[in-house]
Amino acid sequence: MELATSHIAVTGGGSGLGEATARTLAAHGARVTVIDRNKAAAERVAADISGHALELDVTDEAAGSALDGAISSHGPLRGLVNCAGIGGAARIVGRNGAMPLGDFEKTIRVNLIGTFNMLRLAAERMQANEPDAKGERGAIVNTASVAAFDGQLGQAAYAASKGGIVSLALPAARELSRFGIRVNTVAPGLFLTPLLAELPPEVQQGLAASIPFPARLGDPAEFADAVIFALTNRYLNAEVIRLDGALRLPPK
């Protein structure tokens, strides 16, 4: 994929890893649609990078019409980066009894179903693109987490949602290969996102000390660099990239 001539949508683009990705893509010349549930956040980032802001719930089954509007403004959709997601922690059986089923369902719905929803809608539009000189019509990058492999106590819902995204990479890549669409996944470790930035400095330092090398929290720009690699390396397909400084999460 040639970023300088491509229209790429980024979900969760109003903050954190999504914002860093949107800004990096724009710096490489891409036309970026910034998708976020927070309209003000999407508009702020889009204004900074001369992009297109799109207020959207990634779990909305009818989100395709909104994508069509972005395509009308910025041209054929060549890339999708799924960064939208939620965290949260709760034990399967805690002090107040069993985890409310609705809490588990919400995490799966936003993280896993939201990712699949945007993937299917983007792929439907990408398959109609004219292939480039090397036969590619598009590329998709999903965001998982090291929790998919090293889920900690209290992360049953989150780890399950991210594990589903990891498992999605291969069958999606196989199925969409006939259209010339690649699918890859980045599984980040501990990154200095707005959520972690709210923690006290001593807590941040403790988290950083658990990372072998470099012994610090990841910079969202480093995540964005991994996304750029996944989008532009034409031979990378169905891969899950752990981006974690060799971190392996302990049970708690």
UniProtKB/TrEMBL annotation:
Q: Which family does it belong to?
A: Belongs to the short-chain dehydrogenases/reductases (SDR) family.
Keywords of the record, alphabetical order, are: Oxidoreductase
Q: Where is the Ketoreductase domain positioned along the sequence? A: 6-189
Tell me one GO molecular function of this protein.
Answer: oxidoreductase activity
Instruction: Check the record and name the InterPro entries matching this protein.
Output: KR_dom, NAD(P)-bd_dom_sf, Sc_DH/Rdtase_CS, SDR_fam
What is the protein name for this chain? NAD(P)-dependent dehydrogenase (Short-subunit alcohol dehydrogenase family)
Q: What is the lineage of its organism?
A: Bacteria, Pseudomonadati, Pseudomonadota, Alphaproteobacteria, Hyphomicrobiales
* Cross-referenced PANTHER family: 17-BETA-HYDROXYSTEROID DEHYDROGENASE 14-RELATED, SHORT-CHAIN DEHYDROGENASE/REDUCTASE
Alphabetized Pfam families for the sequence: adh_short
